[in-house]
Design brief:
The protein has two domains: 127 residues, 3-Layer(aba) Sandwich (Rossmann fold), CATH 3.40.50; 152 residues, Dehydroquinate synthase-like, alpha domain (Up-down Bundle). By secondary structure, the chain is α/β, with parallel strands linked by helices. Helix 8 crosses helix 9. The longest helix has 26 residues.
Length: 299
C-alpha cells in the first residue's frame, strides 16, 4: 500500500487494483499532478467482505474518489465501495472481458466463487476510461470472453422485452434499450472475428475499436436497459460448480446463451449464425470446453 497524505492538495484517491503494475505506473503521475493516493490490491472475489474491507480503507484514508483498475470483479468492487461511501468512482478496465465497466451494477459473489446477489446501483460510474492499447495487450482469451458476454445482450433483452420483464434498473425494457442491444449484436457480427484475430497478434485495428465499443459500452447499456434472461441465469448457477471456476464469466454466459436459444426454439438460421460466431472466436460450445469433463451430482 502507498501511504496517503492530506487531501487538501488535490484529489485523494483510493485505487483498487489487481496488478501491481497499476500501482507502479500510476503512482508517479498522480504525485506529479499534486494528488494523493492509497493503493490497495483486490483479493480476487467481489464479496461483501471485500467491499467492506475497501470501505474501511477509504474511510481511514479520507478518500474522496474511488478508482477501480482491473477486470470485472475489481471494477464491481470499486463501484460498490464508492456507492456505499457516497463517493465518485472512476473505472479503468484493463481487460475487455465483460460489460461491467459502464453498468450501474455490481455482481456480488460468495467467498467460494459462487454467485450471491446483484447490487443495483442508483447511477453509472462517473468516468470510464478504456485504453485500447492496454485492452489489446491483454491475453486474447479475455477479449473473446468479452465477445461472449456481449453476444448474449441482444437475445436476453429481446426475451425481456417480449415477456415485459424488468431490466437492470428494475423498469420495463424500452424500445431504445432493445435497439442498443441489437446494435451490439450487429457490431459483433460485423467486426468480432476480425478483431479477435487482430488481438491474437497484439495488433490494433478499426475492428478492434468497434468490438471494444460493443463489448464495453453497447453491451453494458443494452443489458442495463434491456434486461437479463436465461443466459445469465444459467451462468449464475454454473458459478456453484467448482470445476467451472476457471472459466471466464463471458465463457459461461456463452454456454448459457446457447442453452437459452435452444429453450426458445430459435430459428435454425439464427442459431447457426450464433454458433458460427462462437466457434470463430474460440468460445466454448459444450461443458467439456469449459473444463467440466464429468457430471458430479454433489456439485
Amino acid at each position: 500500500m502507498k501511504a496517503a497524505g492530506s487531501p487538501e492538495s488535490g484529489g485523494f484517491f483510493l485505487w483498487i487494483h489487481f496488478l501491481e503494475r497499476a500501482k507502479n505506473e500510476a503512482g508517479d503521475s498522480i504525485a506529479a499532478a499534486g494528488n494523493k493516493a492509497t493503493f490497495e490490491k483486490f483479493n480476487y472475489e467481489c464479496t461483501k467482505e471485500e467491499i467492506e474491507r475497501h470501505r474501511e480503507l477509504a474511510r481511514k484514508a479520507g478518500a474522496n474518489i474511488i478508482v477501480g483498475i482491473g477486470g470485472g470483479k475489481t471494477l464491481d468492487t470499486a463501484k460498490a465501495t464508492a456507492y456505499y461511501e457516497k463517493l465518485p468512482v472512476v473505472i479503468f478496465p484493463t481487460l475487455a472481458s465483460t460489460d461491467a465497466p459502464c453498468t450501474a451494477l455490481s455482481v456480488i459473489y460468495k467467498k467460494d466463487g459462487s454467485f450471491d446477489e446483484y447490487l443495483f446501483l442508483p447511477s453509472n460510474p462517473d468516468v470510464v476510461l478504456a485504453d485500447t492499447g492496454i485492452l489489446v495487450a491483454a491475453p486474447a482469451r479475455f477479449f473473446a470472453a468479452g465477445i461472449g458476454d456481449a453476444l448474449a445482450t441482444y437475445f436476453e433483452a429481446r426475451a425481456c422485452y417480449a415477456a415485459n420483464g424488468d431490466n437492470l434498473v428494475l423498469m420495463k425494457p424500452s424500445t431504445t434499450g432493445l435497439g442498443i442491444a441489437k446494435m451490439c449484436y450487429e457490431a459483433l457480427l460485423q467486426h468480432a472475428v476480425k478483431a479477435q484475430r487482430a488481438v491474437e497478434q497484439k495488433v490494433y485495428t478499426r475492428a478492434v475499436e468497434e468490438t471494444i465499443e460493443a463489448t464495453i459500452y453497447l453491451s453494458g447499456v443494452g443489458a442495463e436497459s434491456g434486461g437479463l434472461a436465461a443466459a445469465h441465469a444459467i451462468h449464475n448457477g454454473m458459478t456453484a460448480v467448482p470445476s467451472l471456476h476457471r472459466a471466464q464469466h463471458g465463457e459461461k454466459v456463452t454456454f448459457g446463451l446457447l442453452a437459452q436459444l435452444v429453450l426458445e426454439n430459435t430459428p435454425l438460421d439464427e442459431l447457426e449464425t450464433v454458433i458460427k460466431l462462437v466457434k470463430d472466436v474460440g468460445l466454448p460450445l459444450i461443458l467439456e470446453d469449459l473444463g467440466c469433463t464429468e457430471f458430479i451430482e454433489s456439485e
